[in-house]
Amino acid sequence: MFLKHSSKNNISTILISNKNSKNSLSRDFFVLLSDVLDEIIKNKDIKLLILRGDGDNFSSGINLNELIKFPSTVDAREFSILMDTTINKLFSLKIPTISIVDGYCLGLGAALVLSSDISIFTENVKFGFPAVKLGAAMPASSIKRFISVVGANIAKKLLLTGELINSDEALNFNIASYVTKKEELDNLINKVINQLLEASPLALEITKNTINNYVNTESNLYSEDSFAFLYSNLDWHKRIWTFLNKDK
């Protein structure tokens, strides 16, 4: 099980559930997430979506074993399309979305958070994009979304170095909407939920759509063909194999 979905009181909750690998993400996860998002889109009773990780981590990002077992560059290309369209589907939801972030939040996990409307961090988050150290790169839509949040200079610093930042830095860079102690997390979540549910659903939808159109995430700068090209490069495989075997 890579994902758990439940709905109660007009609120849907998606739980990233792969605790054995710090909630790493796989192709199966993105297939399930896409299907769940389609269900939420069809269900007009759902007014709010919460996305969080199971246990002490949000997500460590893509499962690296996924990145070295594609049978061909065609399969790598298809995976790129799947993950990018699914993340963009989350970003484009008409209802408000909240990410609850604890522990590691890396790579595509961080991209999911950036696709949410509001992010609530605990005090012990490690956030970043280590893709370049593994010979990979984030999709252009996620990079543009990141730039819209932190600006080009901070985006370059974090994306080009793979540096991880803590919760306070994430708040200073406008990545985190809130930072709170774990013992105060539930109260803050309930407060934000109540604020959103008190608002007009139609007004929320129009306002969110206006902001999203301003961000304008559509781009061909990093297409599925670029992902497939990186996969075909020997450096990709060397770096990932080195990382996977460094503690053996």
Brief sketch in words of this structure:
This protein has 248 residues and is of the alpha/beta class.
Helix and strand arrangement:
Layout: E1 3-8, E2 11-16, H1 27-42, E3 48-53, H2 73-91, E4 97-101, E5 104-106, H3 108-114, E6 118-122, E7 126-128, H4 140-150, H5 152-161, H6 167-172, E8 178-180, H7 185-198, H8 201-215, H9 224-232, H10 234-244
Parallel strand pairs: 2-3, 3-4, 4-6, 5-7, 6-8
Antiparallel strand pairs: 1-2
The CATH class, by name, is: Alpha Beta
Side-by-side strand order of the widest sheet? 1-2-3-4-6-8
> Can you identify the CATH superfamily?
2-enoyl-CoA Hydratase, Chain A, domain 1
Number of extended strands: 8
Order of helices and strands: EEHEHEEHEEHHHEHHHH
CATH T-level topology:
2-enoyl-CoA Hydratase, Chain A, domain 1
Uncertain stretches: none
- Please bin the fraction of helical residues: 40-55%
- Count of discrete structural domains: 1
Instruction: Assign the structural class, choosing from mainly alpha, mainly beta, alpha/beta, alpha+beta, or little secondary structure.
Output: alpha/beta
Textual characterization of the structure:
This protein is α/β, with parallel strands linked by helices. The protein has a single domain, classed as 2-enoyl-CoA Hydratase, Chain A, domain 1 (Alpha-Beta Complex). The chain contains ten helices and eight strands. It has helices at residues 27-42, 73-91, 108-114, 140-150, 152-161, 167-172, 185-198, 201-215, 224-232, 234-244; strands at 3-8, 11-16, 48-53, 97-101, 104-106, 118-122, 126-128, 178-180. The strands form two sheets. A six-stranded mixed sheet has the order 1-2-3-4-6-8, sandwiched between helices. A two-stranded parallel ribbon has the order 5-7. Helix 1 links the parallel strand 2 (11-16) and strand 3 (48-53). The chain is globular and about 55 Å long.
